[in-house]
Amino acid sequence: MPDAGRQREKVLAAAHALNRNARPGNDQGFRVVVTGKGGVGKTTVTALLTHLFARSGYTALAVDEDPQMNLPFALGMPQDGGGGIVPLTKNLDYIEEKTGARPGAGWGLMLTLNPDVSDVVDRFGVTGPGGVKILVMGTVVQAATGCLCPENTLLEAVIRYINLRKGEVILMDTQAGVEHFGRSLAKGFGQALLVTDPSFNAVTVVKHAAVLARELGIPHLHLVVNRVRSGRDREKVLKILCDDIGLFSEQFWLPYEEGMNECDPGVLPLLSCTPPPPILEELARIRDTLEKYGTR
Question: Which of 74, 104, 158, 283 matches a 20 to 30 Å C-alpha distance to 41?
Answer without folding.
Answer: 158
